[in-house]
Amino acid sequence: MEHYVWGAPVAIDLFTAGLGAAIFMVAVVANLAGGRKYRRISTAGALIAPWPVILGVVLLIIDLGRPGRFWEMILKRAQELNHLESPFIMFKIGSTMSIGIWLVVVFIILSFVYLIVALLAYPFKWAEIFQKVVGVVGVPFALLVTTYTGVLIAASNNVVWNNWLLPVVFVSSAIVAGIAAIVFILAGLQICNPESEIGSDVPKLEILNSRVIVVQLIMVILFIVFGIGSASMRAIIGSAFGLLWWVGVIFLGLVVPLIIGFKGGAKSPHTSLVVSTMVLLGGFYLRYIILIGGQI
Amino acid sequence: MTAELSMLIDVSRCMGCRGCQVACKQWNQHKAEKTRFTGTYQNPPQLSPETWTLIQFIEPVDYDDNPRWLFRKQQCLHCTDAVCAQVCPTGAINKLENGIVYINQGICAGCKACVETCPFHIPKFDHHSGTVRKCWLCLDRVKNGLKPACATVCPTGAIRFGSRAEMLRIARERQQILTNQGFAPRIYGEKELGGQHAMYLLPENASIYGLPENPRKPTEKIIWRWLMGVIPGLAILAGIGSYLLKERSKSEAKTGGE
Questions:
Q1: Which residue blocks in chain B are alpha helix, DSSP H?
Q2: Number of domains forming the structure of chain A
Q3: In the prediction, which pLDDT does B32 show?
Q4: Phi-psi region of B132 (alpha: psi -120 to 50; beta: other; left: phi over 0)
């Protein structure tokens, strides 16, 4: 069995960290744009945003050669404290991973605060202003966490990853997956409570997602066009991986939801549930194929 | 301030005996590796956590169909502008004053960020120790006034070690001699990545020897990588916001009209 330097745990981490941050951003934008009108979207998003990012951190630690030394990335050792900048805290501006760890730490804290104020704002009108403030504070961190997942592997010696379009591919894919995750939750709740109107925003989100998918598809195509010079990229799209790429990522994960969105959204919550699952799987496969395929 | 040290690998003098490989294994107490014959004397096929230096066997074919046999000692080049040390989130990789880039095995958490950024693909992840390992220019020997193990055994004088200024002087002398013999030699590592502490005297193009002609740090344009995520991300979020606002006013107009 081949050992990849960065394997499946990192692929899942790149996906879930981007996913959670994107869910957060979509929830905040929905809250700012519609207030109580979109509160199903913003509350569902606020409830699920922190967990994928936490899962990502856990996987990042598991992927370390020495998981027990995770704290070396957080705190400085005593003999290093003669450096006066950032006493006790291990932070290196030149290290993408160091920046990412701190972005993720701040994001997780803010997303939990947001979760609490969003829950308070559901029954209490006075908490709405706090929800908006925390949301606006959190969005830059969320966007940087999403971008970080791309920059981490884009600034590398790997010819497939070192593509100037990789960060935008990852960011647009994360937002597509983030909207799909909210669709998944709302459609699932609608199926569990057929009498309620909890899923009433689902078609709107599907139409919205199809517009973002247009951007995502253009970026993915450009990513392939600019990377096709490398043998690894040709191997990715022309091998067994290629089947997963064209069917899993492009067709089921992007083209099918695109068509459904342009037709005005799925007719039943069951369809929405299936399609959003495919979008989420497609988002994961995208990162998995690029990460593993780039190392073959 | 300690003087900057350097190794000089005179590729034109190497005859591929691989004594340096053995010396490295012995001094650093590295295990032998089980390998298979792959049609070349290059063995093991690549650097690993247990193989910090390796003679690369290169067989280019000339215009007149004559194969040539070239050897290059592969190892960490100990860059001044060491990207591995910069991307290390734990601070385990340090660039010492004498120029040696050293991975502290007691701190390295095995995140592999350096493995993915080194432009020469030198650091290797060790599944047994859970850390990343690479050539340390025999820091333990150097601290006690000895030369690195590989430099002591080289029978042709292809591996030299000493102050960086002295090594550069020798390299220039050899460069002159080789130029007179009709080669186009290059001192690789004099200026590359801030100046390296293991320099090559290459009789010809760096790319023939599997080295990048113009090595760059992958993190050089990192600010653009960030902007390529943040700016499109903001644009997409703005699009989402405007769509949701439009939908809201549409539905409000509808309920207002009824």
A1: 19-27, 83-87, 113-117, 139-143, 149-153, 164-180, 222-257
A2: 1
A3: 92
A4: beta
- The CATH number assigned to the domain holding A139 equals 1.20.1630.10
- Asked if residue A2 is part of any domain, the answer here is no
All residues of chain A having their beta carbon less than 8 Å from the beta carbon of residue B219 are: 94, 96, 155
d(CA A28, CA A38): 10
Residues 117 through 146 of chain A touching chain B, CB cutoff 8 Å: 139, 143-144, 146
Asked if residue A1 is part of any domain, the answer here is no
Query: What residue ranges do the domains of chain B occupy?
Result: 5-209, 221-258
Token pair for residue A178? Answer: 């983030």
Average pLDDT on A218-246 reads 87
Q: How far is B106 from chain A (nearest CA, A)?
A: 9
Compare A91 and A107 and report the one with higher pLDDT: A107
- Closest CA relative to residue B9, chosen from B69, B58, B93, B78: B78
For chain A, give the mean pLDDT.
92
CA distance A191 to chain B (A): 24
> What is the rounded distance in angstroms from the CA atom of residue A243 to the CA atom of residue A250?
10
The CATH number given to B5-209 is 3.30.70.20
Nearest to A157 among B118, B131, B241 (CB): B118
- Name the closest residue on chain A to residue B126, using Cα atoms: A65
Residue whose structure tokens are 């995750």:
A181
Q: Is residue A105 part of a domain?
A: yes
- In chain B, residues with a C-beta closer than 8 Å to the C-beta of A219 are 232
Residues 6+ apart with CB under 8 A from A187: A199, A202, A269, A270, A272, A273, A276
- CA separation, residue A8 to residues A77, A79, B129, B231 (Å): 31, 35, 20, 29
User: Is A108 domain-assigned?
Assistant: yes
Cβ count near A293 (within 10 Å): 20
SS3 at position B76: coil
Domain that holds residue A19: 8-293
Point out the residue among B117, B125, B132 whose CB comes nearest to the CB of A157: B117
Angle made by CA atoms B215, B217, B93, in degrees to the nearest 5: 115
Q: Which residues on chain B are in Cβ contact (under 8 Å) with A6?
A: 112, 116
- Over residues B202-221, the pLDDT tens digits come to 998 999 999 999 999 999 98
Residue in chain B closest to A209 (alpha carbons) equals B240
CA distance A187 to chain B (A): 19
Compute the residue count for chain A.
Answer: 296
Q: Which residues from A are below 8 Å from B230, CB to CB?
A: 143-144, 147, 171
Contacts of B111 in chain A (CB under 8 A): 63-65, 73, 97
Tell me whether 0.85 is exceeded by the ipTM: yes
pLDDT digits (tens, 9 = 90+) for B15-29: 999 999 999 999 999
Q: What is the pLDDT of residue A78?
A: 65
Indicate the SS3 state at residue B225: helix
How confident is the model at residue B158, as a pLDDT?
96
What is the number of helices (H) and of strands (E) in chain B?
Answer: 7, 10
Torsions phi, psi for A153 (to 5 deg): -95, -15
